[in-house]
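RECORD TYPE: inverse folding
INPUT: structure tokens
STRUCTURE:
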């Protein structure tokens, strides 16, 4: 596998992950669910999914 082919494959994987993450956030927002996130300060918080869209 050449470097170009490898980079194209990585780009496709990253693109697919972005789509999956967006779909998950949209579904959680529709169901009024929360996300568990950790900020740069290291504190874990529960945040409504609607805040991330």
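DESIGNED SEQUENCE:
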């Amino acid at each position: 596998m050449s470097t170009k082919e490898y980079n194209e494959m990585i780009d496709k994987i990253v693109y697919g992950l972005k789509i999956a993450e967006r779909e998950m956030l949209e579904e959680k927002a529709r169901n009024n669910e929360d996300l568990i996130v950790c900020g740069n300060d290291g504190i874990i918080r529960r945040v409504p999914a609607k805040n991330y869209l």
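NOTES: Residues 3-52 form one domain.
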